[in-house]
């Protein structure tokens, strides 16, 4: 009995520890229009339940449920493994009577304990919109609802209002170098089984600062009165480099959409998922870029935003011939990564070296903020009192539309006597003529006539022969360089290996998004150079056709296209990508190596 008690005690302790993350919650829309369908979902997290009991809802007609679904997720972060699970019980109702109601608690048994959800308040508004509701936030009668398989019937087409990719800009008008946030979103009323970009939007005229995002359907938005599930595909901060209207071109995407075949049975309506392949084109987005006002101050070095400046000496105890650092710190929000180091008027008695920048930034509020520490290393060559004169740092403030100055005060310096002599670098900077050579000149007198020797004539013959050889080699090189297609083909493998090396670095750091982006860039660039096809004209069909004409076997062509598909899928949904990055890297190297060993069956066109 004692042993049994100990076993039961530790079992209870284990169950209690495991139940720390257990929850049982209810989800339902706060407002629904009379006559519309709506879901009530009860979610049990991190536990297995038994004996689920749904609450009684007398004011609505039950159409379906409870439907049970189970999901498990495993995460590995920095070597630490964690898992989560959930059970969802979904009920589908039709709202029949207007009014304000309360959905009572549902119950379920977990490890012998009964858990209940909290009651939910819901309002059913009249179909004519009276009663202060906002029925436009619910799908109109007969429309598609993300949570309702009965509305996602496979017999109806997928319209542009049900599935779209939108490019959204945070501001319609900015100044040059002023930040604007670009977000590419997927709006859908259907489940997505596959998503792959076949043509990326272009950002000509912009510098791009990427913001890390995870492409997942985890957001809800109402657009033009319709409710969507939303995934952020890409978010970046753009800095326009020229004035005028700059346009971000549209992209093309292959999307797999899940619809349902609905049919009636004696037990109710049943749904069977059906996948449909679609091609979606995003919109274009234009930004009006205003030029910076003229004339630009002489002290303006390209900073656009709002900044402050601090200066300091890292080692104020100055001695001659001893290195010291003058720190010029710029802090603020804007194009801080692209600010040029300002000129500092050091005394001529100082030996000054090129400045070194240390940039620390973060993303906040649709812009980049942080600090730039510019370190000027100098070595005083003479003792005494010196001054780094006052200066002005000028930046353009887009909020006021004006140039603003930051006054940088003068810095007083006292240099003590140190050990050593002035450096050669300093002496050469401050001397117009070098010292005349002194001492023994090592002069000699000779009576021999070099013209009588063989070496004299070889000095003429050998250069002529070398010139002839160089001319032949040079003409051959020019002929090869004139053949652009041949040169691109020769260097295709070298360029691809250099890009694969960068991708390998991202794989080692665990950056899946940048790894697949760099790997895909290497593969497209390799086929463009190898096959002599412009990048803009590349696609899988003409790559397959050119490889076939080149003499590549069917197995190798299939492996090549499969690798491109894998990389494209992983680039836009890295969390859905399977497989180890190192194995994908090895697969890409093997494919390129095998292609390099193929002997062409046709002559490369010049």
Summary?
The protein has 606 residues and is α+β, with helices and mostly antiparallel strands.
Q: What do you see in this structure?
A:
The chain is α+β, with helices and mostly antiparallel strands and 606 residues long. It has four domains: 21-135, Immunoglobulins (Immunoglobulin-like), CATH 2.60.40; 149-290, Immunoglobulin-like; 300-429, Sandwich (Immunoglobulin-like), CATH 2.60.40; 484-596, Four Helix Bundle (Hemerythrin (Met), subunit A) (Up-down Bundle), CATH 1.20.120. It contains eight helices and 31 strands. The strands form eight sheets. Strands 22, 24, 25, 26, 27, 29 and 30 form a seven-stranded mixed sheet that branches. Strands 11, 13, 15, 16 and 17 form a five-stranded antiparallel sheet that branches. The protein has a four-stranded antiparallel sheet with strand order 1-3-6-5, with no helix packed on it. The termini are far apart. Mean pLDDT is 81; it is low at 1-20 and 129-141.
